[in-house]
């Protein structure tokens, strides 16, 4: 298949590498200097250092040439880059092939999920869907085994495309619960910030397990309120990615939490990170959605208090632990 991967950060580069082994892949970056540097070194030294780009992987900063003849588009920018990239595609003024996206989050300001942004910007696409699940870019680039979910409301497209993209290094599962897969991928990043804070403060493994489990309950409540199936939360894009991101040292969102626990300010943390941490802008959107839908999301509220309202980690932990006791299903005991 001829595939255009749009966005050359860590994840776009890793996916392009993985698919270049079996498909005809072009990786597009908006920045021509970055493309020149990658072409010169055959490495993405800025976002995925130490991994050689195969000779078969084409690189370009020209969107029209990346898209020409492509049978599948894969948008792998941060969610903040999704709408601008879709608009650039629309501006090409030509029929487009099916499109997948791999960004995780709710769009800042609009609180929209990626599929809603895609529907607004490219309503005439023949098919569309999300790629999500537990997948650190570096491990995928190194060829280590990984399994992810390909979700689309068009179940036949999800199955057909999962079959076409499946490989022995990157196993694909089809799913037609697009909302569930997107919510799982978006909100686990918020939980990873919370877990990083708890681990950074030395709260121990009991606290970590509690955060992950109650985090999953929180994600599931929001997902179901948005129309998702609870079963999806038990899958790769739900529990799978939540476990990976909350516990994996490669997670940027977890690193944000660890650094908050060291007392660093958010601007300093983001500067040091040098990559996107989607949980930071998404936490605010998730809380907005939760308030709108009257879904109780105390861990998300605690992360927002830490990130945006100057609360101290000790304060938010005290607030979380001091809440009225509840049943595990969520009703108050008194
Ligand atoms: N890195 C990972 O392990 C994984 C990341 N993801 C998701 O993939 C998305 C991208 O993440 P990364 O590649 O890791 O980010 P990154 O921080 O490594 O790189 C971001 C890339 O996006 C580009 N970009 C930003 N705004 C853009 C725009 N408007 N148009 C075109 N390009 C733009 C930047 O120039 C940069 O190349 C995020 O939503 C992330 O949550 C999903 C699975 C794994
Ligand atoms: O989404 C990811 C793994 O599935 C990457 O997580 P981070 O963005 O926290 O690094």
UniProtKB/TrEMBL annotation:
Residues that coordinate or bind NAD(+): 7-12, 137, 252
Catalytic residue list: 188 (proton acceptor)
GO process annotations (BP): carbohydrate metabolic process; glycerol-3-phosphate biosynthetic process; glycerol-3-phosphate catabolic process; glycerophospholipid metabolic process; phospholipid biosynthetic process
Residues the entry annotates as binding sn-glycerol 3-phosphate: 104, 133, 135, 188, 241, 251-253
Gene Ontology CC annotations of this record: cytosol
Subcellular location: Cytoplasm
Source domain of life: Bacteria
Residues that coordinate or bind NADPH: 11, 30, 47, 104, 137, 252, 276, 278
Family in the record: Belongs to the NAD-dependent glycerol-3-phosphate dehydrogenase family.
Protein name per its UniProtKB record: Glycerol-3-phosphate dehydrogenase [NAD(P)+]
Organism: Crenobacter luteus
Gene symbol of the encoding locus: gpsA
